[in-house]
Amino acid sequence: MSNENKPKRNLNYDALRQQLATRINEQRIITGEAERLAYGTDASFYRLIPQIVLRLKDLDEVVFAIQCCREHLIPFTFRAAGTSLSGQAVSDSVLIALTDDWRGHSILDEGEKIRLQPGVIGADANKYLLPYQRKIGPDPASINTCKIGASRLTMRVACAAVRRKTPIKPLSA
């Protein structure tokens, strides 16, 4: 069935935006055409213009946004840095993007483990581990811009490892 013949759902983005604005600062609910257009691409060649972009600052906002989308039956997509080469960081519905508030980290067990929030950039995680002569793996070309949240989802198994100059040792989650 072609897209033209598919029945279109009547998605009420205005009602969703109003509900989101009850708990999320309206400056972080992006609905302007030019701003949405800017979020319409990632590092791939795909372009989908989101109806709403949410710049969320904490877990409570993420949970609230997901609950609202579910209540309105409106699909959403997560985006960390937008470095995807495969188009998985674009949406023509609701795009949930992380603000820079998601950059917390802690080094555990003398560098044997690291706990990272999803907004930490991969290269920064390696800087935190440098005194322990460790780094996260793998080492994608986008390490200087990709965020751990997306990298972890995209390369789940590989990001569960920490590299030394010797063999790879698993990183505890």
Automatic annotation (TrEMBL):
Q: Name it.
A: Predicted D-lactate dehydrogenase
**Do you know which InterPro entries this protein is assigned to?**
FAD-bd_PCMH, FAD-bd_PCMH-like_sf, FAD-bd_PCMH_sub2, Oxid_FAD_bind_N
Which family is this sequence assigned to?
A: Belongs to the FAD-binding oxidoreductase/transferase type 4 family.
> Mind giving the lineage of the organism this protein is from?
Bacteria, Pseudomonadati, Pseudomonadota, Gammaproteobacteria, Vibrionales
Q: Which UniProt keywords apply?
A: FAD, Flavoprotein
Family matches, as PANTHER family: D-LACTATE DEHYDROGENASE, D-LACTATE DEHYDROGENASE, MITOCHONDRIAL-RELATED
The molecular function terms in GO held by this entry are: D-lactate dehydrogenase (cytochrome) activity; D-lactate dehydrogenase (NAD+) activity; FAD binding
Q: Where is the FAD-binding PCMH-type domain?
A: 46-173
Q: Gene3D superfamilies from the xrefs?
A: 3.30.465.10
Q: Which organism is the protein's source?
A: Vibrio maritimus
List this protein's GO terms for biological process: lactate catabolic process
Pfam family of the protein (one)? FAD_binding_4
